[in-house]
Design brief:
Layout: H1 17-22, H2 27-40, H3 42-45, H4 49-56, H5 70-77, E1 80-84, E2 101-106, H6 110-122, E3 128-134, H7 139-146, E4 153-157, H8 165-177, E5 182-187, H9 197-209, H10 213-223, E6 227-231, E7 236-238, H11 247-256, E8 268-270, E9 275-278, H12 279-286, H13 306-320, E10 324-327, E11 336-340
Parallel strand pairs: 2-3, 2-5, 3-4, 6-10
Antiparallel strand pairs: 1-11, 5-9, 6-9, 7-8
């Protein structure tokens, strides 16, 4: 179907990143400005890809508040806000008080992989099994590092394709076949297009693997069986603000899982695709049956790939089984999750 706004012509690709970065406004104000300009003057911006991305992402827009509501403006200018996690099973403790934890790590940078293992070794939680994916050319280096660890492990060699997402989907069936119900997804993150790449990865690792983090995450799952994913606090973002060029693919994948378009509004996701998850939360993504050919050849893309889309679709998969998204600071007596609108580590 041709787009009436562009008369079927391909949109003009215009990179606003540099302008976006130097603009003296926080992310909420930038998004509000974009919304006002694009809504008021679509005839000016209609041929630009950035406008098409914005238009496609309307499905994720927060429809709770109207443009004329005070709360709409309060939320528009705030840098973060909290939403309530609705769980009808709160405080039902699992009978398995010491479950196995599968830690899936995509290892592409050996030096960062060593740092991750050091954090895991410091944990007082020991019922851990490591599942490692890595390109064959560095597999030997990764295995040498693993042989010095105290945890059992398996290595799967994978092609450098689909970032950390496709390797995760490849090893996930093995994780489940081994009887694991809880998974911690990690990867040796380097966002080379950001000057803050080290700060981002360190913050993610510390919140997921820092002092007592593993025990806390497992306790959250056991006390709140309706929670399916736990992401690092301050890294859970509103989809509508951080959709990039991924909106149509996220919507397509969501529909394929049986999630209705109307259910996608107000969707939030875990930036960086590192999180704790239950088997029930991950099965809908695995059941999509994505193959190598669904993922682009690696060309250092910063957005708009299948990997970027699946990163956001993990949250949509929660809707399949009526599960909830929480963060690492979640407390059962205060069941809220922080949504960051001005993510320090994103453009």
């Amino acid at each position: 179907m041709k787009d009436n706004l562009t008369n079927g012509k391909p949109p003009i690709i215009l990179n606003f990143d540099k302008v976006w970065q130097i603009m003296p406004l926080n992310r909420p104000k930038k998004e509000l400005l974009k919304s006002i300009l694009f809504s008021a003057f679509p005839f000016i911006f209609k041929t630009f890809a950035v406008f098409q991305n914005w238009k496609n992402a309307q499905v994720f827009k927060d429809k709770t508040f109207s443009f004329w509501s005070l709360k709409f403006w309060q939320r528009s200018f705030s840098k973060s806000y909290v939403i309530r996690v609705h769980s009808e099973k709160t405080n039902e403790i699992s009978s398995n008080t010491n479950p196995k934890l599968a830690i899936a790590i995509h290892a592409f940078y050996p030096e960062i992989f060593s740092e991750i293992l050091q954090l895991i070794e410091k944990s007082d939680y020991k019922k851990i099994y490591l599942y490692i994916t890595t390109p064959s050319e560095i597999s030997k280096s990764i295995e040498e590092i693993l042989n010095k660890s105290s945890f059992p492990f398996q290595i799967m060699n994978v092609e450098n394709r689909g970032r950390d997402i496709l390797p995760f989907l490849k090893i996930l069936p093995k994780i489940f076949d081994d009887g694991n119900e809880l998974v911690l997804k990690l990867h040796t993150k380097k966002s080379n297009h950001l000057n803050r790449k080290d700060l981002w990865s360190n913050d993610l690792f510390n919140k997921l693997l820092g002092d007592g983090a593993i025990n806390k995450a497992i306790n959250i799952f056991q006390e709140n069986p309706d929670i399916g994913i736990i992401g690092p606090t301050k890294h859970i973002l509103p989809m509508y603000y951080y959709y990039g060029a991924n909106a149509l693919t996220v919507e397509f994948l969501s529909n394929k899982m049986g999630v209705k378009k109307s259910d996608l509004s107000n969707l939030n996701f875990v930036a960086g695709s590192m999180f704790y998850a239950t088997k029930e939360a991950l099965l809908p993504i695995l059941n999509l049956g994505l193959k190598d050919e669904n993922f682009e050849i690696e060309k250092n893309q910063t957005d708009g790939t299948m990997a970027h889309a699946v990163e956001r679709t993990f949250s949509a998969a929660l809707l399949v089984n009526n599960l909830q998204l929480a963060d690492t600071e979640y407390k059962s007596n205060k069941p809220v999750v922080l949504i960051s609108k001005a993510h320090h580590f994103s453009i």
